[in-house]
Amino acid sequence: MINFEKFTLANGLRVIVHQDTSTPMAVMNIMYDVGSRDENPDKTGFAHLFEHLMFGGSVNISNYDEPLQMAGGENNAYTTDDLTNYYIQLPAENLETAFWLESDRMLSLSFSEKSLEVQRKVVVEEFKEHYIAKPYGDVWHKMRDLAYKKHPYRWMTIGKELSHIENAKLEDVKEFFFKYYRPVNAIMVVAGNVTTEKVKALAEKWFGDIPSGEKYKRNVPQEPEQKEERKLEVKANVPLDALYKTWHIYPRLDRKYYITDLLADILSGGGSSRLYQSLVKEKQLFSNIECYHFGTADAGLLCIEGKLVKGIKMEDAEKAIETELDKIKNELVDEAELQKVKNKTESMIAFEDMSVMNRANSLAYYEWLGDASWMNFELDKYGSVTTEDILQESRNIFRKENSNTLYYYSGN
Amino acid sequence: MIDTLKTIDRTVAPEIVDAVNFKLQLKSYKKFTLKNGVDVYTIDAGAEEVLSLEWVFYAGNWFEDQNLVAASANFLLKNGTTKKSAFQVNEHFEYYGSYLNRACYNETATVSLHCLNKHIAELLPVVRELLTDSIMPEQELAIYQQNMKQRLKVNLKKSDFIAGRLIDSYLYGEHHPYGKYTRDEDFDKLNRQQLLDFYNKYYQQGKFMIFVAGRLPVNLEPLLNEYFGDLGNSNIQAGPIALKSSEEKKFRVTNDKDGVQGSIRIARPFPNRHHPDFLKIQVLNSLFGGFFGSRLMSNIREDKGYTYGIHSFLQNHIHESAWMISTEAGKDVCEAAITEIYKEMKTLREEPVDEEELLLVRNFMIGSILGDLDGPFQIIARWKNIILNGLDENYFYNSINTIKTISAEELQGLAQKYLKPEEFYELVVV
């Protein structure tokens, strides 16, 4: 049970306080309600590029990192399809430094040309490092493009192509900031060795008079139901053939999300999972196989991917996957098998909650989803899933017309 | 709250307490010894009912006489016993929501268990089974060989993977545990008997110790005695092995003619943690390339945009170490990045760091250690490192003291002593 208190400033900034006096540290986590799904299709990768620019100096503070390091703090940030999150950890005595830094960059960035110029290059290198230089690095560019026709999940957070990043202009940066980075679109969590009273005072002092901004009304095109199966074949400079299959699943707040999550674990959550045991160990068709999903806010994808053992035909490997899926679509899983993945979920949550940073991040995330207190009911939601649910959802999800298949062939 | 915007000047930073004024303490471990003389180190802390147990054996690749024997024995020890198949072993640990992992390092190899406290009694007997009764079936070995060879094929396409292996082989020599690397044929040469012999000598009859952290059960000692108090505990030591560093210092390697980035590694040999300069160099390293505000990061990423990240660090080895700079940079800016790296070395040799920047590095390092001592698993990890390196708690406190007190002159002296370009190996893999 994670305890917290919540209040909202007059400008709409939501603040959550989570006290843990066993640590000498404090954590500040600020989540902005903007991700790559909010981007213009001609300017993809912008939310993430923008995250880099948030470290390029704000209106009154030319250097963000130095004063924080001087206060003994560390920070980082990440951007997803759905949101952008910034977090700081520092000694609790120096908490006010975090308020000073974060409030100034919420007030306004300095919009420096030099910062934009350098970060464009840095992000281009990041793009190359993770999506071009790595074998199979372009898989998700191709798969998203195949599986989504309307929804902005059809491009990756890093961006669709390098030119979108290279062409980013300072006007775009300004517009983006004043549209999304407003108190009314943000959630702040302060955790660790802090008191609500002190956080309230500091929040009023530093964030209280930042103009509220306009609440962003999201209106992204939803993906229409897929009516026929899609297939793509590519050949690339990789040493092994690989097979990727995805199916459309459910939005994060749908109860069926929890069923799907456990289903993925039954299929490939460890050395005793079905796909691993059958296809890697017994039939030896794949050298590795995984089933996972992305946990996106809007309806996401469930994926099964694996690299084929040399000499195995793509069609045979795919057929073997289908055989396993037929099994789970036609026979109830054992109660014990379902209990196994529930137990795994229980311990995973316990391990995650050990760190104050993770707790702060989770509180912000659940508040962003709708209510921070939902964090404390996750386990119950998993607990309520039945073997009947698993059977039903396997049938709903693993339909041919709901599937996207990528044959990724070794070109040498 | 009466404070309003009019009363705050946002250009002025709030008062801070310099982290150098913090008193850092490393919570002491409690130690007990099992009937067979095996030492158990424990940290009792944390709010969640979770435990981490780690069995550390002297069974690393230091002790093998053929490549991969140590790593393969470690990998396969959970793939079947006389009583359970690999599947049943996995199912047992997974049913209780626990994580049973193993890892092979140079001197040591480990088996670790993370679990909820309430399941410990069901799990320890099976850990014992793995340590006493593993049979490494032929079939499991064959699957492992096939799949690891496939994984290696993929890795060999990555310039950072190639660069990591090559730079280590230049530093230590290919026959040394720190410098050797795996080839396809090494997997083919493995045979089951060899793995069983290694398992027998270094696990069943081996030397080990146990590290436990979390909310400790009251009956931990009798539990561990029951399951591990009668295992072999021989006197195995990782004696010195001679280095054979490369004569040649500069290398340019093409792995993929169409590659878009180069993996740069620049490194020099450095003594281990017992050397009087080791802790001081940690401070110089932070300043040079050890954190986001370092000279290398500020110049090569934040000013020039040549890379997504650049780091320098001391390798975490017990016998010998190396001081390394590592980055992936655009293919056409690799040479420019290397020039800048040497330029930063030169600046450190020629100009003392100013007090402001030095204070920043001190505060950052102390703050970072303070933050890192969060929770029982982090605390036991620090202790494990201290104990396996043959050090004691003074190492921790000396380290804090060095960070707080080292002077700009000393740092410049160390830069002159160690940051000599001619003593560095230099490698770019595209």
Span from first to last CA of chain B? 59 Å
Order of helices and strands of chain A: EEEHHEEHHHHHEHEEHHEEHHHHHE
Question: Most extensive interface, residues per chain?
Answer: A-B, 85 and 76 residues
Helix/strand/pairing category of chain A: alpha+beta
Radius of gyration of chain A, in Å, reads 23 Å
The count of domains of chain B is 2
Any chance you could write out the topology, listing elements then pairs?
The complex is a heterodimer of chains A (412) and B (430).
Chain A: E1 5-8, E2 14-19, E3 25-32, H1 46-53, H2 65-70, E4 74-79, E5 84-91, H3 95-107, H4 113-132, H5 139-147, H6 162-166, H7 170-180, E6 186-192, H8 196-207, E7 230-236, E8 242-248, H9 256-268, H10 274-282, E9 286-293, E10 301-308, H11 314-330, H12 335-352, H13 356-369, H14 378-383, H15 387-397, E11 403-410
Parallel strand pairs in A: 2-6, 7-11
Antiparallel strand pairs in A: 1-2, 3-5, 3-6, 4-5, 8-10, 8-11, 9-10
Helix pairs in contact in A: 3-8, 9-15, 10-11, 11-15
Chain B: E1 30-33, E2 39-44, E3 50-57, H1 69-76, H2 86-95, E4 99-104, E5 109-116, H3 120-133, H4 138-155, H5 159-172, H6 184-189, H7 192-204, E6 208-214, H8 220-228, E7 250-253, E8 261-270, H9 278-290, H10 295-303, E9 307-314, E10 321-330, H11 334-350, H12 355-372, H13 376-388, H14 393-405, H15 408-418, E11 425-429
Parallel strand pairs in B: 2-6, 7-11
Antiparallel strand pairs in B: 1-2, 3-5, 3-6, 4-5, 8-10, 8-11, 9-10
